[in-house]
Design goal:
Layout lengths: L2 E3 H17 L3 H13 L3 H20 L9 E9 L3 E3 L4 H13 L11 E2 L6 E2 L7 E7 L4 E8 L1 H4 L3 E5 L5 H8 L11 E8 L2 H11 L6 H7 L4 H14 L14 E9 L6 E8 L5 E6 L27 E4 L5 H6 L5 E10 L2 H12 L12 E3 L24 H10 L4 E4 L5 H9 L3 E4 L5 H5 L2 E8 L8 E15 L6 H21 L1
Length: 506
C-alpha cells in the first residue's frame, strides 16, 4: 500500500504549474512547426512565426507563454490502495500547490480568478481555487494531470443536445465559425459525445490533455469510427479557412480529440472546447517516493523560426498620432507602434462608462490616444512589465461607442475579431482596431520599455497603465471604413481551399 504525503502533492502541483507556464508541450510545437512550413497565407505565417518565437523565448527565459496564465483544472486518478499522510483534503493540497506556483517570486503568474462571480467578482489574488475532477481507480498510485486554461479559449466552449439522427460533422462545422478567433488558433478542439450534459463537457475538456497525433494518425490510417471522425472533422474545420488568429489560412486546428460515453436513447449530447495557442498541460504520477519533477524539453527541438518585423511595416508615432493618420491605414497594414499608449480592459471600461454616465470626469485624458486591451503579468527581476499579450476585443464592443464618442479615443488594440456593434462604432467615428497576436505575450512585452499605473490601481492587472513602446507589431484589423480582415481573410482562404480541393478531385 502506497503512502502519499501531503507535501509531495503540493510540491508536485506547484512545480508542474510553473513548468507549463513557460514550456509548451513538445507535441504542440512539432505540430505548429509543420503548420508553419505548410502555411501559404502571409498573415497567418507571420502570426505563427510570432507564436513559435515567443514559445522559445519563454522556454529560455522561464516566463509565461501568455499573460493569461489560466484557470487551473486538474484531473486526478486516485488508486484505491493509497494511504495519505497529512491533514489537508486533496483539494486543499492542490490549491496550496496552485498558490505556491502563482506567487513564486521568480516567475510570478497572473492571478485571474474572481470570487462571488455573479456580483462583486473580487480577485482571490493567488489564482485559487482550482477546478478538480477526481476518479477512484484500481492500484496504488496517484496520477495527476494539471492544466491552465486561458479565458479566451474557455469562453468559446460550445454545447448542444442534438437529436440522435443529427449530424455531428454538420454541428461542428457550423459551430466553429461562431467561435470567432478569440480562442487564438491554431490550436486543438476537444469534443465530448454522449453521457449527459455535464459528462460531455468534462470529456471534451479531458480530451485536450491527450497529445497531438493527427499527423501520425493520418500516416497509419484510422482504426475506429472515432478516429475516422477525428480526421474528417480536422480536415473540414481547416477547410473553413479561418487560419491562424482568424486572419485566413490553411491551419485552424492542429488536432481534434474525441471522447465518448454511452448516453440516453433519446439524446446525443455534444460539447466542444478549444485549446488555444498557449496550450498548457502536464501529467505526473506519485508512487510514494517523493515529489514528481518534470524534465525540461530540449531547446534544440524548437523549429528554427526567429520572427522579425516585416520590412513593409509602417512606423507609427503614437505621441503625434492624428485622426487623419488613422483614417489612412488600410486593412491588413502591418504597423510598428512607438510612443505612449494607454491600457484598459473589462473592469476599467465598465468603471469609465459608469463615470461618464454620471457626468464625472475620467482620471485619464484619451484625446487622440490608443488603448491596448491587456492585463499584464507582474514584472520580475529587471522587467518593466511581464508578458503582456492582448485580450479578446469583442468583450469591449459594448463599451466602444461610448469610448469613441465621449473620450477622444481614436484606436484600439486587442486580439481576434470585432463584433457588429464594435465595427459599427469604429466606422461611425472613423477610428481603427489593431490586432496583436494572441500567444505571443512575452515577445510583445519586449517592445514595452516603460510602464506605470495611471488609474484604478485597485483593479490589479485590470488597472489603466501607460506603456511606452518601441516597434510593437500590430495589424490593422478594422479600418476607419469598417472593413474587417477577420471577415475578408477567412472568406478568401475558404474559397482558395475549396478551389484547390476541386482541382484535386477533377
Amino acid at each position: 500500500m502506497t503512502l502519499i504525503r501531503e507535501d509531495d502533492v503540493i510540491e508536485s502541483v506547484a512545480d508542474a504549474l510553473q513548468y507549463i507556464s513557460y514550456f509548451h508541450p513538445m507535441d504542440y510545437i512539432r505540430a505548429l512547426g509543420r503548420a508553419y512550413a505548410l502555411e501559404e497565407s502571409p498573415a497567418a505565417r507571420d502570426a505563427i512565426a510570432q507564436i513559435l518565437t515567443n514559445s522559445r523565448m519563454c522556454a529560455e527565459g522561464h516566463r509565461p507563454i501568455c499573460q493569461d496564465t489560466g484557470i487551473v483544472i486538474v484531473f486526478v486518478k486516485v488508486g484505491m490502495n493509497i494511504r495519505w499522510q497529512g491533514t489537508k483534503t486533496l483539494e486543499e493540497m492542490i490549491n496550496e500547490g496552485v498558490r505556491r506556483a502563482y506567487l513564486n517570486p521568480e516567475n510570478r503568474l497572473r492571478a485571474s480568478i474572481v470570487d462571488d462571480p455573479a456580483f462583486t467578482r473580487v480577485n482571490t489574488r493567488d489564482n485559487t481555487p482550482a477546478v478538480v475532477h477526481v476518479e477512484l481507480v484500481a492500484g496504488d498510485a496517484l496520477d495527476i494531470t494539471v492544466s491552465a486554461k486561458g479565458g479566451g479559449s474557455e469562453n468559446k466552449a460550445k454545447f448542444a443536445m442534438l437529436n440522435p439522427s443529427d449530424s455531428i460533422r454538420d454541428w461542428v462545422v457550423n459551430t466553429v465559425p461562431l467561435m470567432g478567433a478569440g480562442w487564438c488558433p491554431p490550436g486543438m478542439l476537444g469534443i465530448g459525445i454522449g453521457g449527459s450534459a455535464e459528462k460531455a463537457m468534462i470529456m471534451a475538456k479531458e480530451s485536450l490533455m491527450d497529445p497531438i497525433d493527427m499527423a501520425e494518425l493520418k500516416a497509419r490510417g484510422p482504426r475506429s469510427p472515432i478516429e475516422e471522425l477525428r480526421i474528417e472533422l480536422h480536415d473540414a474545420v481547416n477547410d473553413l479557412g479561418i487560419g491562424a488568429q482568424g486572419l485566413g489560412g490553411l491551419s485552424t486546428v492542429l488536432d481534434v480529440k474525441i471522447f465518448d460515453a454511452p448516453t440516453h436513447a433519446a439524446s446525443k449530447p455534444i460539447a466542444m472546447i478549444p485549446n488555444c495557442a498557449a496550450t498548457r498541460h502536464a501529467h505526473f504520477t506519485l508512487t510514494g517516493n517523493g515529489p514528481a519533477y518534470l524534465d525540461p524539453p530540449n531547446l534544440a527541438d524548437w523549429p528554427q523560426v526567429n520572427w522579425t518585423p516585416d520590412k513593409a511595416s509602417i512606423p507609427v508615432n503614437l505621441d503625434t498620432l492624428t485622426p487623419a493618420e488613422v483614417a489612412s491605414w488600410q486593412p491588413g497594414d502591418r504597423l510598428l507602434l512607438n510612443g505612449k499608449m494607454l491600457t484598459g480592459r473589462d473592469a476599467a471600461h465598465k468603471r469609465m462608462t459608469d463615470m461618464l454616465a454620471r457626468g464625472e470626469p475620467l482620471p485619464v485624458d484619451f484625446t487622440n490616444r490608443v488603448i491596448y486591451y491587456v492585463g499584464p503579468v507582474d514584472p520580475v527581476r529587471d522587467e518593466v512589465v511581464g508578458p503582456a499579450g492582448p485580450t479578446t476585443a469583442t468583450r469591449m464592443d459594448k463599451f466602444t461607442e461610448v469610448m469613441l464618442a465621449q473620450t477622444g479615443l481614436i484606436a484600439m488594440i486587442g486580439k481576434a475579431e470585432r463584433g457588429p456593434t464594435g465595427i459599427e462604432a469604429i466606422a461611425k467615428h472613423k477610428a481603427a482596431y489593431l490586432m496583436a497576436v494572441g500567444g505571443a505575450a512575452y515577445l510583445v512585452s519586449k517592445a514595452i520599455k516603460g510602464a506605470r499605473v495611471l488609474a484604478f490601481e485597485d483593479l490589479g492587472m485590470e488597472a489603466i497603465y501607460e506603456f511606452d513602446v518601441r516597434d510593437m507589431p500590430v495589424t490593422v484589423a478594422v479600418d476607419s471604413k469598417g472593413t474587417s480582415v477577420h471577415k475578408t481573410g477567412p472568406a478568401d482562404w475558404r474559397d482558395r481551399i475549396a478551389a484547390a480541393r476541386a482541382k484535386q478531385t477533377a
